[in-house]
UniProtKB/TrEMBL annotation:
Compartments, as annotated in UniProt: Cytoplasm
Recorded catalytic activity of this chain's protein: guanosine(37) in tRNA + S-adenosyl-L-methionine = N(1)-methylguanosine(37) in tRNA + S-adenosyl-L-homocysteine + H(+)
Top-rank lineage group of the source organism: Bacteria
Subunit structure as annotated in this protein's UniProt entry: Homodimer.
Name under which the protein is recorded: tRNA (guanine-N(1)-)-methyltransferase
Source lineage: Bacteria, Bacillati, Actinomycetota, Actinomycetes, Mycobacteriales
Organism: Williamsia herbipolensis
Alphabetical list of CDD domains matching this protein: TrmD-like (cd18080)
Family affiliation: Belongs to the RNA methyltransferase TrmD family.
Amino acid sequence: MRIDVVSIFPEYLDPLRMALLGRAIDRGILAVDVHDLRDWTHDVHRAVDDSPYGGGPGMVMKPQVWGPCLDDVCPDDAVLVVPTPAGEPFTQRVAEELRNESHLVFACGRYEGIDQRVVDDVARRGRVRELSIGDYVLIGGEVAAIAMIESVVRLIDGVLGNAASHQQDSFSDGLLEGPSYTRPEHWRGLSVPPVLLGGDHAAITRWRHEQSLARTRARRPDLLDETGTAARRPTPPSS
Ligand code: SAM
């Protein structure tokens, strides 16, 4: 997969080269390129924003800068991802859809966001996803882009050491994952649930499912349907 990210703070994206993502780059599974939006400005101040039509506080990012930038960076067969609190919710299901793409381009907004015509223009020639990582407002799109990139890239075959690990994660089967434990068996007066120590794999699987359901019921009842089971069906492994 190829990922391009456009930002006025390219150094914000440095974590993309660390840990598992860095290893995926080293192994040729992933190529990441980060671009400074100001490279597409032509004025002495390298301005990327202007005051909003219709008045109001804040500034809006200029189409005359974003347009030529995306003409260069975002080919018609790529998916342009625009992080915005006004977007469709970014969920594990969306991550699973995006992992099958070969080229993603992230346009990181700042200030009050990007002039809408930039998005509408790319949508005339290609695919655009305006995505929100949650019901809160960040200062800029960089952190949202990193969150989305991490969750997409870890689903690509070969990125995680053990492919089964993401298949058992929260949301993969529509439920939250239950609690996990490691050694020692007793710690500060707290013990590992005995079922995990017995080696009865059927009992462990049953216990884990019950824990998963109980946790989902308590913390995220919105993930369950009227029968009390996961509203979302598990997705098949990657194509
Ligand atoms: N005026 C915008 C609104 O109310 O919808 C908020 C703009 S926000 C201060 C600046 C940038 O941060 C956005 O353009 C977007 O790139 C990013 N951003 C903020 N919150 C986000 C969220 N929940 N999900 C994704 N991106 C977000």
